[in-house]
Amino acid sequence: MTTKAQSYLTHFRNIGIAAHIDAGKTTTTERILYYTGRTHNIGEVHDGAATMDWMEQERERGITITAAATTAKWKRSGTDQEYVVNIIDTPGHVDFTIEVERSMRVLDGAVAVFDSSQGVEPQSETVWRQADRYGVPRIAFSNKMDKTGASFELVLGDIRERLGAIPAPVQYPMGQESEFKGIIDIVRQRAHTYTNDLGTDITESDIPAEYADKVTEMRAALIEAAAEVDEDLMMKYLEGEEPTVEELVAAIRKGTIEKKIFPVLCGSALKNKGVQLLLDAVIDYLPSPLEVPAIRGTLEDSEETREFPADPEGKLAGLAFKIMADPYVGRLTFVRIYSGTLQSGSYVYNASKDKRERVGRLLKMHANSREEVTELKAGELGAVIGLKDAGTGNTLIGDGDDHVLLESIDVPEPVIKL
Ligand code: GDP
After folding, report:
1. What is the value of pTM for the model shown?
2. Of the candidates 328, 320, 304, which has an alpha carbon nearest to the alpha carbon of residue 382?
């Protein structure tokens, strides 16, 4: 049961974007940040560092365009409902495998980006296995549909053969390579055609006649896959009844969260094609913090475990997952709060280091600004200024609470070497 205090969490998605190097993770992330824009631009950081162009700065440093966790907002197309999408940086290179593992711990769902001219490449395979190990629900984005050699079928086939997963295409490309014009939403049976070079103007229409048979066939397969995970849908299916769009979306969502269905989308991030629909799919199919299993911790010196469901009114449980040195404010400790509420100026207990630490200021990082906040609630991610000792992977709990260590994020088995 979701309490009133937890209800904001239904509109939260904490996601990572994972890819083989060059598949288009940076471009996809950049476009996502472009489309989500900045709803917040109010925060000021003192110490002479007011709102700054974060993206520009990161680019100058040549590292990455995002912070370890970037908070964006997205209004799902066709609705008035606004969602918070926290994008957690997942390093793409195999050298950062342990960092990838760490990031897997703090996200609830992932978008796997593939280069549709290359199919599933080795690093994508590694990241996919890591996501499997951490039980992370996924959707896949077959990017670069405009590129010579692009083939949606290649990606679908590779997902089946190289990843051993059953792809559930929820979209179909209209044209491929230089003829790539748009995307058909198989669930809603609508065509989205891009009508300008920038890919920002979209016309929605009925499905062009030439794609009708293909879409009918793909939709039937999708309904069949969804019926496998949803009893109500199965009943309808057996009686030959057509599910409503809402029922189909709900069943695919259930299958995705249970990791039985992997929705596959397509597009071209570089041409801005498909990115808005990708964001809609993140909302439709990836879980909120309430839909993933509660994080567990072990009580110090015992075998006793505790669960920390996503609840801002619960006991504080957070994980530090990345430390960054900031030229203006010093040490930034990126945290995910699983349960409870972290207050600026409060004391927390670092259970990994057996140390009481003072929380200074709290920041939420947006694409090109940072917002100072007074608290970070369950399900939220942000940066803490002022923690002196916290390292990556450390557990933060309430001062005076029972000493609990959150589930270890050490690599549980040897890293696959490629
Ligand atoms: P990353 O290494 O996964 O972060 O990949 P990038 O986003 O940096 O993209 C790698 C290269 O592929 C860059 O030169 C991009 O411009 C290009 N690229 C990314 N998305 C697309 C796309 O949709 N179509 C085409 N043709 N090129 C793309």
Report:
1. 0.90
2. 320
